[in-house]
Amino acid sequence: MKKDLLSLFDLETDDFDYLFNRAIELKKRHKQGIFDQSLAGKSVGMIFDKPSTRTRISFEAATIQLAGTPIFMNSGDTQISRNEPVEDTARVLSRYIDCLVVRTYSQKLIEDYAGQCTIPVINALSDQSHPCQILSDLMTVIEYKGGYQGLKIAWIGDGNNVAHSWINAASVLGFELVLSCPEGYTPDTDILDRAWARNTGIIRVTPDPVDAVADADVVYTDVWASMGQEDELEARMALFRPYQVNAKLLDAAKKDVCVMHCLPAHRDEEITHDVIEGRHSIVWDQAENKLHMHKAILETLILKHKNH
Questions:
Q1: Is residue 120 part of a domain?
Q2: How many domains does the chain have?
Q3: What is the dihedral of CA 294, 174, 8, 214, to 10 degrees?
Q4: Torsion angle, CA of 156/162/167/173, rounded to 10 degrees?
Q5: Which CATH number goes with the domain that contains 93?
Q6: Beta-carbon contacts of residue 78 (< 8 Å; ≥ 6 apart)
Q7: Is the domain of 298 the same as that of 281?
Q8: 266 in any annotated domain
Q9: Neighbour-count burial of 40, counting CB atoms closer than 10 A to its CB (0-12 exposed, 13-18 middle, 19+ buried)
Q10: In angstroms, what CA-CA distances link 82 with 75, 78, 86, 150?
Q11: How far apart are CA 120 and CA 303, in angstroms?
Q12: Which of 14, 15, 227, 290 is least surrounded by Cβ atoms within 10 Å, i.e. has the fewest?
């Protein structure tokens, strides 16, 4: 039976831990100059409706470094742009490729692809979630903190798709997650309710960023206006200004706090230049780890599907 990665609610604790361990092992092997070929003869299709730097390149490079072949498809250059039904595209692609990676606006569209594809489908970002991002982020946290258990992670800013995936992960893994967002920009209530129903750890929302950051092990932020919301940025600026991650805010966190940002960053908006370039920042390791985590995800989904 095939397995998809549409949100982090699709994973159990053992799945998370396997992916973390495998990604760290693949990273170690890569640094040692060992070239794995676990995806030799396999092809990975990628349908992207949204612009991308890190996610696209890391998925392409991950496929190539495991000896597979990436096939990038801008939906505007395919029959999708002429209203070919999802079920037709999905069924045909299932006969051509071994895995489909989708980056689009609608979570439902990704779920529709998964419902029709007979190959694994991976969510590379939707309006609702960004699961692969948080998997690589947590891999980075493990490298710096030795694990995720017992940690306090603070999310500061917009309650967006990346925040939703942090909520999903916390609900499964049980670490403490405190999200601080302006009124009207808090995470989706359905996602929070589903996470709270699992009751595995502390997940709470506060309007006070200092409260969120107090004694935090990790402080995480993202842009104030996500893709497709650029026309809202000016209106958001004043409202979000108190949620800037700066040196003063970090004073409330632990002395060895790690600062994370999924990039691209708007310096001196959601995060100051001195913080993203400072001693607490682990942003560049975080970005690199997308490559190694994507290797682990692709290898696991494709090869487990093959073995069934």
A1: yes
A2: 2
A3: -80
A4: -110
A5: 3.40.50.1370
A6: 47, 84, 89
A7: no
A8: yes
A9: exposed
A10: 10, 8, 11, 50
A11: 10
A12: 14
Q: What digits encode the pLDDT tens for the residues 40-92?
A: 999 999 999 988 999 999 999 999 999 999 999 988 888 888 889 999 999 99
pTM over 0.70: yes
Report pLDDT digits (tens) over 276-308. 999 999 999 999 999 999 999 999 999 986 544
Using N-to-C axis directions, what is the helix angle for 13-31 and 131-145, rounded to 10°? 70
What does pLDDT average to over the chain? 95
Quote the domain boundaries for residue 264: 133-286
Asked if residue 164 is part of any domain, the answer here is yes
Q: Which pair of structure tokens corresponds to residue 91?
A: 């069924």
